[in-house]
Design a protein that fits this description.
Layout (H helix, E strand, L loop, with lengths): L2 H13 L12 H9 L6 H14 L4 H11 L8 H13 L6 E4 L6 H9 L4 E5 L3 H10 L6 E5 L2 H8 L5 E7 L24 H8 L4 E12 L1 H4 L4 H8 L2 E9 L13 E8 L8 H7 L1 E5 L4 E5 H5 L4 E2 L1 E7 L2 E7 L5 H11 L20 H6 L12 E4 L30
Parallel strand pairs: 1-2, 1-4, 2-3, 4-5, 6-10
Antiparallel strand pairs: 3-13, 5-7, 6-7, 8-9, 11-12
Length: about 425
Amino acid sequence: MRTQELSMILEAIKSGNPKNLYINNGGLAQLGEHLFYPKKGREEQQKVLLHILKNSFPETYGTFLESLKKYHLTSYYTPKSIVEYKISLLKSASFEPTTILEPSAGNGAYVQILKSAFPKASIVALEPDLLSYEILKNNNLQSANVTVLNTTFEAYYLQHKDKTFFDLVISNIPFGDIPIENAFEHDYITNPVLKNVGNYFNVYAPEMCSMGGVTALLISSAFNEKSIYSGLRESILMKNDLILANRFNNALFKEERTKVVSDLLLYQRIWNKSGLTPNEKLFADTVSIDLGQGPHTTNAFFNKFPHQVNGEVAQGYFHGRPNLTVQPDAEHLSKFLDRQLYAFEFDLHNALTNAPSPNALTSKSDRAKQEVPKATEVSQFLATPVSKKQEIIKLDDKYVENYTRLFFGSFNFDA
């Protein structure tokens, strides 16, 4: 932990970021480790960090800590190559969204690149953690096309479902088996497994998409591996076409000190779909495989199409129990992404203009007039409307070339 950089970030937040810096933090999990579970011999460092936070925000210090305690264990930040890959897929398909939702924005790695890739688009970025929200807000103070909200996706969806839709919903959703906040308010949920935050994002993020729009999510593979979620996957695919599914090995988030296997999914919202394609049926289904220590279920699509997997399926362990994992193989991540991008042949340039508008959705003509939700419409949230060009600094950091969200560092996206 570099206390000098923490002080610099907090000073930029307090002062309203007058130099319009792009601020990057390297993950709440690492910060939480230093603040709440310091290793032996690092107790003095913990005291220094707490002192810096308390001096910077004396009136909201307790709120900051409570927020960090709540969110630091489910925040795994996306490698820059994956963010750029997702945008490149959309660009290669000539998809040009005019409205974008980032429902789990962190400090804004996706938002930063989205602003450059789609400069005419209006972007709504949600972030529940207070420290990450303050950084996100300060990174977008000069961006009139970005609205930042300090709220959870489930609270936002509860207020805007069936009323507000976006051409693109894109995110790395929270990982971890934790409940959504204020689950009792969501009386539309009939399946209790949807009160798990990961499942909730998987099912309801595509619901925020306009007809013809695209949902691009990076998720934990657990949602696609379990047979008990087959019905949920099928329900998603009855409203969306699956246009891409990739699986990444357990080294993708190595800098976050976790060996999670993750899936990248691209859906296109479809109206009046009558059934699933053969590949979509595979994706909704699971099969049983045995690598020597008993049978395990795995997603039938990835089992049939191993070329969509960056790595080799292997026997692993999770909390001491046998499970399946994906280990790195000879194909480097960059080669895998290049191969996938080369093979991606979808044309989405007319996807939005040709899409039908059912009564349940806002019509295209009305949506063209619709403004991005502003603070007056969501007064219970902290909302900050946040240009196109930032003066960005680049600090020397050993991760700066590879990762968009650094441990209290800064990244120059224009470099």
